[in-house]
Every structure is written in C-alpha cells, then in structure tokens.
Amino acid sequence: xxxxxxxxxxxxxxxxxxxxxxxxxxxxxxxxxxxxxxxxxxxxxxxxxxxxxxxxxxxxxxxxxxxxxxxxxxxxxxxxxxxxxxxxxxxxxxxxxxxxxxxxxxxxxxxxxxxxxxxxxxxxxxxxxxxxxxxxxxxxxxxxxxxxxxxxxxxxxxxx
Length: 160
Prior knowledge:
- By secondary structure, this protein is mostly helical.
- The chain folds into three domains: 14-43; 46-92; 99-160.
- It is 66% helix and 5% strand.
- The chain has six helices and two strands, in the order ββαααααα.
- Strands 1-2 form a two-stranded antiparallel sheet.
- A hairpin with a 2-residue loop joins strand 1 and strand 2.
- Helix 2 runs antiparallel to helix 3.
- It is elongated.
- The chain starts with a strand and ends with a helix.
C-alpha cells in the first residue's frame, strides 16, 4: 500500500506478519519446553526402581523409620542409605546435589522438576510446602527472588 504525501512515495508498515512470525516461534519454543517437561515426568526418579537404590530403600527405609534419630543404629543405617542417596543424586538432575555448584548450575527445567518434587514430598498439606521452601531456601542458598518465584508458583498450584 502506498501513501502519497507531498508527491513523495512512502511504504506503510504493517506489523501483522512480523507479529505472527514471533507468535509462531514462541509457540514452537513453548511446545519444545512442554515436551521436555513431559519427558521428565515419564522418567522422574526411575533410578529408585533400579540397583543399588531399590534394594537399599527396601531394606533401610523401614529400619530408619523405627530407629531413634540420635542412636548409633540410625547413624549406621544412614551411612548405608547414603549409597542409595548418592546414586540417586548422581542420576537425577532435578536435585541440586547433582551439580558441582548446586542450584547455580541447574536449568529452568531442573528447577521446575525440583519444585514439583518438593510438592510431592509434602503431600496434601499446602502449608507444609511453605515450611519446606523456607528450609530448602536456606539449605540450598536460594536467592530471595527464586524463593519468591517458587512461593508464587506453589500458591498458583494450590489455587490461591
């Protein structure tokens, strides 16, 4: 389309094509991200069903639940349990312990999976997630900003 002003020709810019291309690209990227999250949902914590984790969890979890947390028995069982935990961290990138620099080396996908894993850990008690978040914020030295993002996410997940 041409507009004639004072005998000069000028093209009129229409942003529609550029915007539609941006929207298409964004759709591609969000779909790629969704596939990544769906793939993670399928393989999440499968190492717990493999050796050495499976046998150690089966053997040690009931014993740890019965033992007093300050007892020598508990300490010995915890050392044995560490083999399973170390294997688990090595094979599951949604744990900060998987990385040399913890959370700082994680991807956004790792963070999302970790955040949802924490929700699973607390079960059906919405208030417990905020307590766990506070503990893990200190444990993993999470920034205030990331802590706020996770808190907002948990509120959204709980329909608040």
